[in-house]
Specification:
Length: about 160
């Protein structure tokens, strides 16, 4: 579970769902207090504007079939304040939001690739034998260790 707190809300990501929560006065003044939850299959894009020394950044999520509005030059962040799918962050919060962004984008890519577990396939016996032979040829393991591991791999 990744949880990051921004300027006007917080985001939690559990690997499957992105939850935006707003509390307190800033939540009430911007989009309203409450919670919005997306499954990663619903997210069609992640918009990112990094925070700089003089300006806040934001992360925004677009859902399939959503009606996004293009911001005028210089007003992206101020428009994101009133977007229920966005959270504003400062330069001190930027690193945590970058990690969140990477995790969400990786989960979306894995979901769309048809491999939601994201676990790489196990290496084949032939691949393992080739690795062992390379280690033997490099002198990292002895021939006896190679033969022992070979028997283990071949089920003997």
């Amino acid at each position: 579970m990744i949880e990051v707190k921004g300027h006007n809300g917080q985001i939690a990501f559990d690997g499957q769902y992105v939850t935006i929560t707003r509390k307190g006065i800033l939540g009430r003044l911007s989009v309203g207090k409450g919670e919005k939850r997306f499954h990663i299959s619903q997210i069609s894009s992640v918009q990112w504007k990094p925070a700089g020394p003089l300006v806040n950044g934001f992360i925004a999520f677009s859902a399939a079939g959503g009606n996004e509005r293009r911001s005028r030059f210089g007003s992206q962040t101020s428009n994101a304040v009133n977007d229920e799918n966005s959270v504003i962050f400062t330069t001190r919060q930027k690193t945590a939001f970058e990690e969140l962004r990477k995790a969400i984008e990786a989960a979306i890519a894995n979901h769309h690739s048809g491999n939601p577990s994201a676990a790489p396939p196990p290496p084949s016996v032939a691949d393992e034998l080739a690795k062992l032979a390379t280690l033997r040829d490099q002198g990292a393991i002895t021939d006896a260790e190679f033969q022992q591991q070979k028997q283990r791999l071949l089920g003997g």
